[in-house]
């Protein structure tokens, strides 16, 4: 599969329709991270600006947001989506590997980015260096074994263990071939603490994708988005808890 996310933008859009409960994200922003004053935000690997769409409605007026991403296609799309937005928001094409941030942000965030990188720890260090003293660093990343365990399909044929051997090999090969870490979500809080962040906390995204028998197009996207075999297409119900891990700490 290509690493150019500009070529996978339909997949990106489709998965983002079923990723968060809005009330849970609001709970994080207002109650857990307690963002009640204007903040300056940077989003590493922002894609087409999905997190910006969620954040900008929740953070206090006077806040600003900058998204960086290596994909020109996604940054163009983000600029198009926000072209009439009257908030202070900008998107830039940048490669995180060479990007040199200044420590000036109150909130440094990424979602589903470190999982795809060969040196996630280097990028986490860079994210921390972009935060002001007292600033918050947030990483939202999957843990593939948890995600896999969160799938249930109502069918006589369904065997939740059928791909275990294949997945174990795939995940180990990914690590050995260059560091893509299938457990990154669960490791980040440990790294955050080791890198000197304080008040490190961890939450789990509570969204569960549930599709009953009705709605064929939803079933197609469920199968695609959760990499479920098409042989289950005619099953009676589909449930998947992605269990993305939300780790955060203060610089
Ligand atoms: C799974 S997508 C997530 C996008 C976005 N955070 C979201 O949740 O919708 C991963 C993103 O990381 C970006 N990315 C990967 N490597 C990068 C790099 N070296 N520098 C900047 N962005 C990168 C990709 O272009 C892609 O947009």
Structure keywords:
251 residues; Rossmann fold; seven-stranded mixed sheet; three-stranded antiparallel sheet; 9 helices; binds S-adenosylmethionine
SSE layout and pairings?
Blueprint: H1 9-16, H2 22-32, E1 40-44, H3 50-56, E2 64-69, H4 72-81, E3 88-93, E4 105-111, H5 120-130, E5 131-141, H6 144-149, E6 151-154, H7 164-176, H8 184-194, E7 198-204, E8 208-211, H9 216-225, E9 237-241, E10 245-250
This protein binds S-adenosylmethionine.
The site of S-adenosylmethionine (SAM) has 19 residues, from α1 and α3.
3D structure, described in words:
This protein has 251 residues and is an alpha/beta fold. It has one domain (5-250): Rossmann fold (3-Layer(aba) Sandwich). 35% of the residues lie in helices and 24% in strands. The protein contains nine helices and ten strands. Helix 3 links the parallel strand 1 and strand 2 (64-69). It is globular, with a radius of gyration of 18 Å. S-adenosylmethionine is lined by residues 5, 12, 16, 45-47, 50-51, 69-71, 74, 95-97, 111-113, 116.
């Amino acid at each position: 599969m290509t690493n150019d996310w500009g070529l996978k933008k339909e997949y990106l859009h489709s998965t983002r329709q079923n990723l968060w409960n809005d009330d849970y994200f609001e709970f994080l922003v207002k109650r857990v991270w307690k963002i009640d004053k204007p903040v300056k935000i940077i989003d590493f690997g922002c894609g087409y600006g999905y997190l910006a769409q969620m954040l900008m409605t929740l953070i206090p007026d006077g806040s600003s947001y900058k998204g960086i991403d290596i994909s020109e296609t996604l940054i163009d799309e983000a600029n198009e989506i926000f072209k009439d937005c009257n908030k202070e928001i900008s998107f830039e094409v940048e490669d995180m590997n060479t990007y040199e941030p200044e420590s000036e942000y109150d909130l440094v965030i990424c979602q589903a980015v470190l999982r795809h990188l060969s040196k996630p720890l280097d990028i986490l260090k860079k994210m921390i260096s972009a935060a002001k003293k007292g600033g918050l660093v947030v990483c939202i990343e999957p843990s593939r074994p948890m995600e896999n365990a969160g799938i249930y399909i109502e069918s006589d044929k369904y065997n939740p263990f059928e791909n275990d051997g294949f997945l174990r090999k795939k995940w180990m090969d990914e690590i050995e071939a260059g560091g893509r870490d299938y457990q990154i979500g669960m490791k980040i809080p440990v790294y955050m603490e080791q890198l000197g962040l304080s008040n490190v906390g961890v939450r789990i995204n509570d969204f569960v994708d549930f599709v009953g028998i009705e709605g064929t197009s939803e079933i197609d996207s469920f199968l695609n988005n959760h990499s479920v075999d098409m042989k289950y297409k005619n099953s009676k119900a589909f449930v998947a808890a992605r269990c993305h891990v939300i780790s955060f700490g203060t610089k």
